[in-house]
Amino acid sequence: MASELRVDRISPVNGIANVTQNLGGNAGGGIIQVIHSNTKGQTFASAESSTSTFIATGIEASITPKRSDNKILIIANPNVMSYNSSSNQAAGSIKIMRSIDGAAYTECSPIQIGTQVGYYDYGGSGIMGYNNISLIGVDEPNTTSVVTYQFYVKRLSGTGIRLGYQLTGDIGSNSFFTLMEIAG
User: Fold this and answer.
1) Domain 32-182: which topology?
2) 108, 137, 145, 172 — which has fewest CB within 10 A?
């Protein structure tokens, strides 16, 4: 005789699911907590130096994992402007770095989370472009200490790259971080 159990929801203790996959291991997947932040009303962050080094923007969000084997799903939507006031090409790079318990910022692990933006104008006397882009990745910080994620930018060509340009203008110029702790 076959039995069937139907329920609307099963809530594991502490929100942590312990499900074994066919190939072995903990499938995880339960969302433990969600943190959301945006930049509305903050001053824009700018990278207008001639260096080819990433610089911190000050736009950040923090989460404190409940367990060290949990993962952090990062959904970020920075408002990026890249421009050149005297020529036809502007490009920049943006990435997310993390700090664990106030230590120096390092790359996310196991993969780097970032992208490049660029604009080219065939007219030749200057260009500016800005839009919101999406960055999505999974970080494995292996800690229960506070983890802070921050946007870093680097100018590749042109005059500069900025995040959150005209932040007080409208909601379209805000940058967002959503951090989700996922059971390991």
Assistant:
1) Jelly Rolls (2.60.120)
2) 172
